[in-house]
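Long-time lurker, first post. I've been practising inverse folding by hand and with some scripts of my own, and I keep getting stuck on stretches where the structure tokens seem ambiguous. Below is the full token string for one chain I'm working on. Before anyone asks, I'm not after the true native sequence, just a reasonable design that respects the backbone. If someone could post their per-position residues I'd love to compare against what I wrote down in my notebook.
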């Protein structure tokens, strides 16, 4: 019997590592397992709904996500109260767009889930310090009194100096 399942993952390319085999193995396992196989349609449905929400409100759904849709009630997660407030103002528009696309959404609830939603990673830039700057920071660290008040600052300076001296 042919399956109508379409994987959300890109097709396996030759030469890819074990990650592609692992993903394929997971989907094969889910397809072949009676109880776990029932999860695939729900996952696909939520993924499609997430994409529809992103298309409707792209700026807000960079960090928000669909949690579930049950009995016409859509539950969305926001990473903080400020974003939840902005999203709340757009809920009628979102509901209307989703209904026009055929989604049975009668109500939308928001949940603030701090730390649950992975926000876009911010790449940190490593600042290179000159030898003169490193010498100045080392002198400051040496000149500070070894008191409880200065312990945190001295430790931070020492950590920074070690990191820059070791090139990492």
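-- Answer (accepted) --
I ran through it position by position. Result:
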């Amino acid at each position: 019997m042919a399956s109508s399942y379409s994987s959300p993952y890109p097709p396996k390319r030759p030469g890819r590592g074990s990650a592609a085999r692992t993903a394929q193995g997971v989907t094969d396992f889910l397809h072949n397992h009676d109880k776990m196989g029932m999860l695939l349609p729900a996952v696909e449905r939520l993924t499609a709904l997430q994409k529809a929400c992103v298309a409707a409100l792209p700026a807000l759904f960079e960090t928000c996500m669909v949690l579930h849709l049950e009995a016409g009630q859509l539950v969305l997660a926001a990473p903080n109260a400020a974003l939840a407030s902005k999203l709340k103002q757009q809920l009628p528009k979102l509901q209307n767009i989703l209904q026009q696309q055929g989604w049975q959404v009668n109500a939308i609830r928001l949940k603030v889930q701090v730390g649950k939603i992975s926000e876009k990673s911010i790449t940190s830039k490593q600042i290179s310090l000159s030898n003169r700057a490193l010498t100045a920071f080392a002198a400051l660290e040496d000149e500070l009194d070894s008191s409880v008040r200065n312990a945190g600052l001295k430790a931070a300076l020492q950590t920074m100096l070690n990191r820059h001296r070791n090139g990492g």
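A couple of notes from the structure itself: Residues 1-17 have pLDDT under 50 and may be disordered. The chain has two domains: 18-112, 131-165. Happy to go over any region you disagree with.
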